[in-house]
Write a structure and sequence with these properties.
The protein has 32 helices and 6 strands. The protein has 647 residues and is mainly α.
């Protein structure tokens, strides 16, 4: 159901929800993040928590029990953990793999819940969702969730971007409707100042929201002839008609977000809760805020925006500073805390928190949110840098600039990313570690611009700076990128040479047999083993892969162990040691099962059924598992391959 804000989609939706509930369906509604900051997965987490009968913040074990209770599989738990913000073995995998598992787990869980009872999943104001939730909603609309019925309200533009046709599209009220409204109001309200039909036509855009605000403005004592024409100005005029205590409460609520509680407003205003009763009652009576038990929420986002914008700047800062004092650092989302610190003028803490929030958004593949949060963090650190020149602030500025440039690159904003890097390089002189990060980001940009030669030259400069920094992890990361660029250029031997040099450097000359080294040493050795395999140096590749496995175990990297075992299986196959190949493949499959990567597990199981592995016995149970895993994540090609191998 689509329509512009204020067209009545929410009201119509809630009536439909009441009808569905009366007909016996369990109705679950997902609303946007009430903070207005579009926290990754907020609406999806809330609806999944409601379906699973859990609080949005819950222990990992409780999540696992709830998944089984609704009839889903514990194989869905790692993917759901991504949405609920729990750390799991999936965190070591690439973001695209984690998103695949999260989407599959969410759809399967909702479908399982819908098998036992009629289920209605309602997504309100989806145009205000975060990017991660929008991606999941798009998948839900494409594939469905079993027997669950799905309803969405959004703007018409959002529906077009999603590639869906609205079943119901709301527009302005007809003249006939305006006549009926005017007649009803004039007969129901004993007030000669009520707007006439001509007033409604002349002073509104005929949207239900605009008409309602004009009528209420007249009821509250405003003169229709003097009413502002623009809806936002009309709302501001209504706010001015409030009593001073009610206006103060409205300002505090607006600073807190789209939804809050009496207790939080009282804490921010440093008043007893009982003293807010009259002010809240006035706001509720005038439909500028809704009082629902202890919860206070805005029925229209425009009211919140206008109330916030009309709050004097010094009052806003005081309100946000009071909010910061009431926050529990352990329980509050970094984006929320960072936002309030930023608005309160606490810039250093804001920069740190907003950067952390940007990391979470990037982790969830929400590029737009990551860019916005990193940009705000950069603005905070820039202001601090101009005021103080503190070396710690310089490091924060440059690190944030690197993150922003990377997020902009991923989003395709290459010119903006280049500008961010140029600005930051002026601040990083004299710090090889910071300069190395910036030069590396510049190399990534060159690659995105299809200038491979320039990317290689720039990355070589980054390697030199990294060596000068003395940070072995950074050195390893730079060499991994450089080797990838040489491989892309078709120079596999040079890639192997660079990786060999990197291993010697980070182990201080001890080489692969070293008993210590940076945490990414296993990754260097694994990439080296892949390179050696490409050069058909199988014996050397096996030795490198075995060392990689040992270092992955030392670093306690689950994905490192799984990938090393998988490569060793392929290498021993090429060396005609089929027993060792089968042993390593079985260990790789088991490791991938524990991690929760269903496609990775299915691919390993299918690998044993390829024509080049005809000497290995193809187990029917392995193909059944591969087919089931592929079906669970919607991997059609994997299903077909498993069925063919099983036949």
């Amino acid at each position: 159901m689509a329509g512009p804000p204020g067209s009545g989609t929410s009201r119509l939706l809630r009536d439909a929800c009441a009808d569905a509930a009366a007909a016996g369906a369990r109705v679950f509604l997902a609303a946007p993040d009430p903070s207005g900051l579009r926290t990754p997965y907020y609406p999806m987490r809330s609806i999944l928590a409601a379906v699973l009968d859990l609080p949005p913040v819950c222990p990992y074990d409780a999540l696992g029990e709830a998944v089984e209770r609704v009839g889903a599989s514990r194989r869905d738990l790692p993917g759901l953990a991504e949405i609920f913000g729990h750390s799991s073995a999936l965190r070591e995998l690439e973001p695209i793999v984690r998103r695949r598992e999260a989407h599959a787990a969410a759809l399967r869980t909702l479908a399982a819940a819908a098998e036992s009872t009629p289920l209605a999943l309602v997504f309100e104001d989806a145009h205000r969702y975060d990017g991660a939730s929008v991606n999941l909603l798009r998948r839900l609309l494409q594939d469905g969730a079993g027997a669950a019925r799905i309803a969405v309200t959004c703007t018409s533009e959002f529906a077009r971007r999603m590639g869906v046709q609205a079943d119901i599209e709301l527009g302005p009220l007809s003249n006939e409707a305006l006549v009926a409204i005017a007649q009803h109001v004039q007969s129901a309200v004993d007030n000669d100042a009520m707007p006439s039909v001509s007033d409604l036509i002349a002073h509104t855009d005929a949207s239900p929201s605009h008409v309602a605000h004009l009528i209420r403005y007249a009821i509250e004592g405003g003169h229709v002839d003097a009413a502002p024409m623009a809806l936002a100005d009309l709302v501001a005029a209504r706010v001015e008609l409030l009593s001073q205590p009610a206006r103060r409460v409205l300002q505090a609520a607006a600073a807190l977000g789209a939804e809050t509680t009496r207790e939080r407003i009282a804490a921010v205003l440093d008043q007893p809760v009982d003293e807010l009763t009259d002010a809240l009652a006035q706001l509720d009576a005038r439909a500028l805020a809704v009082l629902d038990g202890d919860v206070v929420w805005f029925p229209h986002q425009l009211v919140r925006r206008v109330a916030y914008a009309a709050t004097p700047a010094h009052v806003r800062r005081e309100l946000h500073a009071a909010i910061v004092r009431t926050l529990d650092d352990q329980a509050v989302d970094p984006a929320v805390a960072g936002h309030h610190c930023e608005q309160a003028g606490q810039l250093e803490r804001a920069a740190e928190l907003l950067s952390i929030a940007g990391d979470a958004a990037a982790d969830a593949l929400d590029d737009a949110a990551a860019c916005d949060l990193y940009n705000r963090a950069l603005a905070c650190s820039r202001a601090l840098l101009l005021a103080s020149g503190d070396p710690n602030v310089t490091a924060l500025f440059v690190e944030t600039a690197v993150k922003l440039a990377e997020a902009l690159r991923v989003a395709g904003e290459l010119a903006l990313a280049r500008g961010v890097i140029v600005e930051a390089r002026d601040r990083a002189h004299g710090s090889p570690a910071l300069e190395a990060q910036l030069v590396r980001a510049s190399a990534h940009l060159s690659l995105a611009e299809d200038d491979l030669e320039r990317a290689i030259a720039t990355m070589r400069s980054a390697v030199g700076l990294a060596i000068a920094s003395g940070d072995a992890v950074v050195v390893g990361d730079m060499y991994l990128d450089l080797a990838a660029l040489y491989t892309r250029a078709g120079n596999a031997r040079r890639a192997v040479d660079e990786l060999t040099e990197a291993v010697d450097l980070v182990t201080l000359g001890e080489g692969p047999s070293s008993t210590s080294g940076p945490t990414n040493l296993w990754h260097l050795l694994l990439r080296l083993a892949h390179g050696l395999r490409g050069l058909r140096r199988i014996t050397d590749a096996i030795a490198a892969a075995e060392h990689a496995l040992r270092h992955a175990e030392r670093a306690r990297s689950a994905i490192g162990r799984a990938r090393c075992q998988a490569l060793l299986a392929d290498l021993f196959e090429l060396a005609h040691d089929y027993d060792a190949a089968a042993r390593h493949r079985e260990m790789a499959v088991e490791a991938m099962r524990r991690i929760g990567d269903r496609r990775g597990t299915a691919e390993l199981l299918l690998a044993g059924a390829s024509a080049t592995r005809s000497m290995l016995r193809i187990r029917a149970d392995a193909m059944r598992e591969a087919r089931e895993l592929a079906r669970e994540i919607g991997w059609r090609e994997g299903e077909r391959r498993a069925e063919a191998a099983g036949d």
